[in-house]
Amino acid sequence: MRWIDASKQSPQTTAPFEWAIAYATVDVPLSSQLAAWAPRARGRMIAGCTSSAGVFSPAGFTRGMHLLVADPEDNVRASVVLRACSSASARRVAREAAEQLAKELGARPSTLLLHATPGYEERLLEGISEAFGGDPPPAYGGSAADDDLSGQWKVFAGTKIETEGFALVGFVAANEPAGAFVAGYLPTQTRGVVTRAQGRVVHEIDGQPAAQVYNRWTMGSLDRHMGKSAIVLADTTLAPIGRLIDKQKGMPRYLLSHPHQVQADGALSFFTEFAKGDELMLMMGTPELLLDRTTQVVHRARGGSDEAIRGALLVFCGGCVMAIGDRTKDVARLYAQRVGSAPFVGAATFGEVGCLPGASVANRHGNLMCDTLLFR
């Protein structure tokens, strides 16, 4: 596999490749770049999404468009289905896309990569699961992002671009790609139960207004926002809400949710869905923990194997990028060390998708998380 910096390399002088995963910042002239690079892919399969503030690569965390490309000797086949959809149609469209993807590959995918625009990721995962009879392949990825939550995010495949929809990639390989999905935050003893919720809005925790409860849990972090509608992303990045999913080999695994808006009536809005009865815990993070999980996610994906890595994909929460600031370049440095200097690209996303394997495959959507795919 190879890493390509599209701002420094010319399509005309680059050797053809089988397929590519590409990430780009929103200032990239995406239509012209895709038109230039698509002919270099023998199957015209270039797929990806926009990334917040930069793209991870061996060069660090830089703006522009970067590609991870596969060559014939890598022995990994890939195909992509790009679809526009809305929240109402997402489940059905995702099911149909996954069915089409399997037909195009002529086999059950070893692994899936999902990049969607933010808003209905849970519906997409439900549709994908239905397409495989409730037993889907492991899925990883993240939601397209921009620099300022203004909605400039995009997903793309070939030369086509969607501003509301998703790109679903399937891989078939004799040596299946290895993946991992980690939180990187520590649980506290502060707990509660959702007593009223609708979709991504939690109205009450333990019978009290959710924003008031969270504000008390975090020692008044939202004091200046209470009683009005306000975006609170910066105030909550290092103190998300967690849900214990299970324990794997004695290690607890958490799914994180990012509080992003206080509502005037005391409700708290998130980027993930909740249901009445969900048990919540306050999680705490630091910049150091967020950097450390870059090492942790590769370690978990490798599972103790020292097999050489041909190429890799990294998905790292865009909110966490904002929290660690200039230290984001260290994410790329640490990741490069852990993958043995293999070529890689990575996106800073507004929502993450990953698999938490256990008795059965469980593909989940979370926030403020980190996932990876390693091609071996």
Description:
The strands form 4 sheets. Strands 14, 15, 16, 17, 18, 19, 20, 21 and 22 form a 9-stranded antiparallel β-sheet that branches. Strands 1-6-2-3-10-11 form a 6-stranded mixed β-sheet, with helices on one face. The termini are close together. It is α+β, with helices and mostly antiparallel strands. The model has no long low-confidence stretch (mean pLDDT 94). The protein has helices at 30-37, 90-105, 121-131, 210-217, 233-236, 287-302, 318-324, 328-338, and strands at residues 2-5, 17-24, 41-50, 55-57, 60-62, 65-70, 76-84, 111-116, 139-143, 155-157, 160-162, 165-173, 178-182, 186-198, 201-205, 208-209, 230-231, 241-248, 251-257, 259-262, 268-270, 279-284, 311-317, 344-349, 352-355, 363-366, 370-375. The protein is 22% helix and 40% strand. It has 2 domains: 2-182 and 288-375, no CATH class; 186-284, no CATH class. The longest helix is centred in the N-terminal third of the chain and has 16 residues, at 90-105. α6 (287-302) runs parallel beside α8. It has 8 helices and 27 strands. 52% of the residues are buried.
Number of helices: 8
Q: Mean pLDDT, rounded to whole units? A: 94
Q: Tell me the quaternary state.
A: single chain
Q: What Rg do the Cα atoms give? A: 20 Å
Characterize the largest beta sheet: strand count, sense, and whether it forms a barrel: 9 strands, antiparallel
End-to-end C-alpha gap = 10 Å
Identify the overall geometry: globular
Please, how many domains? 2
Low-confidence stretches: none
What is the helical fraction, as a range of percent? 10-25%
